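Fold this sequence, please.
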Amino acid sequence: MAKVLVKTLPGCGDIPLPEPATRHSAGVDLRAAVEKPVVILPGGTLMIPAGIKVAIPVGFEWQIRPRSGLALKHGVTVLNSPGTVDSDYRGPVGVILINHGVEPFTVKRGDRIAQAVLASVEPVEMEIAAELSDTARGEGGFGHTGI
């Protein structure tokens, strides 16, 4: 089992640490560490602090993903979904929320705003190629197979 080290930021000791909602949840819930309620207007975006810093193990990333209930009920989602926290990042964790809904959305201190999933990543090396192999798909993309 991989271990994520978590440091609570000053003034955020009352915010619960990230934890899974159920025993078999894939991710842990991140909570809003806003000082007072903030409103995201329809079409608006806002960076919501999570009140923590983390140390992700080498060979992993934390994928910051939307919460399905916020998306379904309010049209609120993570803008750069999934966001990534790299293993060498040690700054504060924040979540960029966007309100695609028709009503203003209020974020309150301690609200569950996103989930973080620990995912394995493979190091990659780029290599210049004169040619690429052919496939049945070829260069077809962006809806080339129809609806």
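The chain has a mean pLDDT of 95. Helices lie at 68-74.
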